[in-house]
Amino acid sequence: MKIYLRAIVAIVAVALFAACDTTEQTTFKASVDYRIEDGIIILDEPEPNPVQSSMLEFRAEPLDTVRVGFVGLGMRGPGAVERFTHIEGVAIKGLCDKYIDRAERCQEYLIRANMPKATLYGGPQGYKALCCRDDIDLVYICTPWQLHVEVAVYAMNHGKHVAIEVPSANTIEECWMLVDAAERNRVHCTILENCCYDHFELTTLNMAQKGLFGEIIHTEGAYIHNLEPYWEHYADNWRLEYNQAHNGDIYATHGIGPNCQLLNIHRGDRLDYLVAMSTKSINGSKLTSELMGAQECKQGDQINTLIRTANGCTIDLQHNVMTPRPYSRMYQLVGTEGYANKYPVEGYTFKLEQIRGVDSCAMPDIEDLNHHTFAPREVVEAMTAQYKHPVQLQQVEGVPLQEYSMSVGGHGGMDYIMDYRLIYCLRHGLPLDMDVYDAAEWSSLGELTRISIENGSKPVKIPDFTRGNWDRLDRLTFYFAETEDKE
């Protein structure tokens, strides 16, 4: 009898434990359903509509003139409008902001450039009238993050290409919405990740593609930027409110974007799974209490994320906008034959025999290249001159794009290079440098890291937004009309 009772108690205990475990799995809500298998969180992935097809290396019809409408003219938008006045083959047709006086102020950029004035749109739904116009090809979106997908999907459903500021989406559900809309409507959806066009990043990427670092096995990236001086400048306090309400690496794209390009993500490799951790919120809680009267701040002061790829590479990401650390995107590359580092000190480390094996003329003849320190300045200068990315060398009015971009401005010129490449590819009917899968993958980390943190830092499987096509290509390619003409 005692044995029988003990058995009953054991069965009940197991049942209660299972019930508790199931409850734990459903406590932390996500934008899509998920399950936990063998300790790994796996998210449901939607089935594609039969009319959808892959957007990998998608080419649209060339546009002699790219007719643009801008939506969101608060902090980032006006700079974009001004930069576009320096790009050949652009017509700015519409300017839209919730507060129409902001759109009106941007007319000054067009007047200075001797361009026709644009039509103005205001109010929360003003973007819809802009997207319905027949004379707009590209909708350039710089609204608060919460509106990115709403505007982008509406624009794509009306046949427009879209370019979306970072992060392009905030949830996994929104990431799939972008993918489905692009695939269904056969229009471009690109992420405006300017850090992929930083001069150091571009040169390092070209070195990596030429094999100077050997096989890349690890990269690091971050967004470390004390935003204390800027919080009050975000309209309606939208950015601080978002930080207060969401934990996780909600602004990962500056760090992950250049890393994914180095590792050919969805072009031969894919992001497999991640594990994320958060510190407690001290500065964030104090800030949101003072400025918002909030009882808590869900965003930890420091977020750390580790990612493993399908091919066995790792990525280390950090996010911190609350403490007085020097600005850093980290950007580090570990290869079997070399190393690159941008923050806090720029530098490269190479094996001499590796460099000579790749290009015997690439650097001064220094016999003793110490592997334990950064390469000497003269070596780095010779290497970076030799390995400038083809994008940096594109000619604009007879001047290399890198040099021209610095005269226009925008985060040291990388914003202009980003915009120039977007228009260049649209005008020549070329695949864009960054596609909708980049937008989805890089933006998905916001919710994925939150899910990991809220589930005790369990591993989270990263969705394959290409739906199995991640190894169809073997590398990232930047396209040029001149090269295609020769072929």
Notes on the structure:
The structure is a single chain. The chain has 487 residues and is of the alpha/beta class. It folds into two domains: 122 residues, NAD(P)-binding Rossmann-like Domain (Rossmann fold, 3-Layer(aba) Sandwich), CATH 3.40.50; 231 residues, Dihydrodipicolinate Reductase, domain 2, CATH 3.30.360.10. It has 17 helices and 18 strands. The strands form four sheets. The protein has an eight-stranded mixed sheet with strand order 15-14-13-9-12-11-10-18. Strands 5-4-3-6-7-8 form a six-stranded parallel sheet, sandwiched between helices. β11 and β12 form a beta hairpin. α5 packs parallel to α6, α6 runs antiparallel to α16 and α9 packs across α16. The longest helix is centred in the N-terminal third of the chain and has 26 residues. The protein is globular and about 60 Å long. The N terminus is likely disordered.
In a nutshell, what does this entry contain?
This protein is α/β, with parallel strands linked by helices and 487 residues long.
How far do the termini sit from each other? 86 Å
Whole-number total of structural domains: 2
In one word, what is the shape? Answer: globular
Q: State mean pLDDT (0 to 100 scale).
A: 92
The portion of residues forming beta strands comes to: 15-25%
CATH fold group of the largest domain = Dihydrodipicolinate Reductase, domain 2
CATH homology superfamily name of the largest domain: Dihydrodipicolinate Reductase, domain 2
Low-confidence stretches: 1-27
In terms of structural class, how would the helical and strand content be classed? alpha/beta
CATH class identity of the largest domain: Alpha Beta
Largest sheet data: 8 strands, mixed
Count of extended strands? 18
